[in-house]
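From the methods appendix. Each design record in this collection lists the tokenized structure first, followed by the designed amino acid sequence. Records were kept in a plain field format so they could be parsed without special tools. The example shown here is representative of the layout used throughout.

RECORD:
FOLD TOKENS (314 positions):
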């Protein structure tokens, strides 16, 4: 009997928390904790892992900025570097806890974006180090970068276009058919587009694709039975950080859309969950990584479905 597919999107901050020093040792320690929670899912499911890379790409950008003798590598290359770095640790630590004969594979994953996406007209994603206004203006003139105020300083912003296509989708399917745990679409995928000047030629794009939206596209295209976004909170809350805050248990996309959620944190997750449920009719969930087996059972996190069963209503 064919096993159901679960796509789990790991937040970058779940692997390298905001308060953690950005060292390889700390990241590996966090990944060891993550794989202990994830490994049990691989026995009865096809497990596909995506992951964020925000802290890691930020670190690479800071390291590049400290060595001015060489022009900084473009964002698509940094994205590829971070995919390899994070997935290497995930793959190795999964191999340390899964049965020796369980195949595990990592795919560097390119995701197509539209060069004419409206997001390029209003870049919003902060990347790299902060600068004083004079230095930011000089870099904007020299490189064509866009800067926006970030606190008292200035920081580069890039577009966050919609993910359109996952180029490695067919190899991902082949690996799943061979019962492999697949790690792919890290950081929303490497932003890639077809050149306007050279038809049928792929080029990298200076952009950041939202990890949750790219993971939703992956889950939808794979026909996943369940799409989980693992984060550092135990679900979606109304009135977050207020005295009357309340976690949502089982909800429909329509019910979720009646509320507003922060664009920089929970908003993209809610958007991704509602897209997946409406496109597939299958369940999406948002919750903590340590609760993941209970999330699969429907007993933890916020679960988004077309129609909430009577016994799951609060």
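DESIGN:
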């Amino acid at each position: 009997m064919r096993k159901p597919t679960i796509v789990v999107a790991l937040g970058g901050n779940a692997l390298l928390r905001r308060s953690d020093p950005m060292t390889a040792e700390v990241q590996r320690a966090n990944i060891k904790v993550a794989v202990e929670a994830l490994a049990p899912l691989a026995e009865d499911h096809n497990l596909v892992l995506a992951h964020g890379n925000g802290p890691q790409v930020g670190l690479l950008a800071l390291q590049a900025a400290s060595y001015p003798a060489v022009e900084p590598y473009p964002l698509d290359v940094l994205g590829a570097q971070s995919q390899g770095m994070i997935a290497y640790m995930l793959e190795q630590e999964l191999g340390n806890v899964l049965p020796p004969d369980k195949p595990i594979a990592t795919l560097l994953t390119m995701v197509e974006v539209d060069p004419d996406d409206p997001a390029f007209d209003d870049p919003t994603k902060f990347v790299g180090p902060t600068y004083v206004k004079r230095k930011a203006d000089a870099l904007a003139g020299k490189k064509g970068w866009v800067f926006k105020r970030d606190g008292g300083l200035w920081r580069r912003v890039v577009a966050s276009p919609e993910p359109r296509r996952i180029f490695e989708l067919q190899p991902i399917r082949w690996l799943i058919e061979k019962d492999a745990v697949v790690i792919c679409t890290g950081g929303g995928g490497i932003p890639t587009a077809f050149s306007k000047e050279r038809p049928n030629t792929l080029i990298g794009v200076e952009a950041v694709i939202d990890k949750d939206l790219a993971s939703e596209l992956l889950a939808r295209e794979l026909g996943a039975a369940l799409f989980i976004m693992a984060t550092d909170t135990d679900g979606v809350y109304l009135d977050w950080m207020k005295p009357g805050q309340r976690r949502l248990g089982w909800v429909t996309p329509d019910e979720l859309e009646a509320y507003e959620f922060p664009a920089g944190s929970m908003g993209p997750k809610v958007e991704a969950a509602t897209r997946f449920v409406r496109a597939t009719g299958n369940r999406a969930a948002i919750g903590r990584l340590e609760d993941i087996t209970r999330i699969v059972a429907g007993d933890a996190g916020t679960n988004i479905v077309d129609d909430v069963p009577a016994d799951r209503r609060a």
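APPENDIX NOTE: The chain has one domain: 5-107+167-312.
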